[in-house]
Structures are given as structure tokens and as C-alpha cells.
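Dear support,

I submitted the protein below through the web form. The confirmation email said the job was done, but the results page showed an empty box. After a refresh the structure appeared. I'm attaching both so you can tell me whether what I see now is the final result or a partial one.
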Amino acid sequence: MPIKTIDEFISQYPPEVQTILQKIRALIQKSAPGAEEAMAYGIPTFKLNGKNLVHFSAFKEHIGFYPTPSGITKFKKELSAYEGAKGSVKFPLTKPIPYALIGKITQFRVKEVMGQAKEKGKKT
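What the results page shows now:
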């Protein structure tokens, strides 16, 4: 049966990983007031104005954070110490999680999505 809520998703991990996921969740909530929680692609997702803002997940050896390619590009320098791909970054569980950086990236994505909403409003 597919997982329907972020609480359900987090509850399947060991306690130390649950703590990290709950901190990330709270940080995203604080950084993106008004964003809605959802499950998308089988992982916790925050949406703003109907658009995917950021996603996060947990794996055996890392936390995955998915702020879209623009979020990765904008913070390329700060993220250079971590493995990643076009729209994702891996934070190893063996190192401190960069919560402040996750917050900054989320705030950037909020501005980006809100900017897109304003652009749409101008075109109509």
C-alpha cells in the first residue's frame, strides 16, 4: 500500500533518521510559510501555488534533497562538497546535515515560485 502522508513516510525509518527528517520538515515549513505538504514521486514534497517547491527523502547512507535544478545551480558553490545530480543533492548521514543551507535553498525556491506566479499574473 502506498504511503499517503509525510508522517507515515518518516515513521518507517530508524529513530535517528526520523529526527533528521522531522528537522528538515520543520525547517521547510518555517522557510516556506504557506507551502502545502504532499507526497509526490513517493517522497515528502512541499508545494506552493500548486508547484513542487522541494522534496526530501532518506536512504541507507544519505538524505536526499531535491530543490529542482535551479535550486542546485543557484547554490552550486555551497553544495560542491556533496554528491548530487541536476536537481538533487545527497547529504551523507555520517556528516552533519547542513540545515541552514537547506533553509536558504528553500527560501530561494519560494521566491522563484512566487516570482513565476507574479509573471503569470502579468500575462493574463
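Response: this is the final, complete result; the empty box was a page-load delay. The chain has a mean pLDDT of 94.
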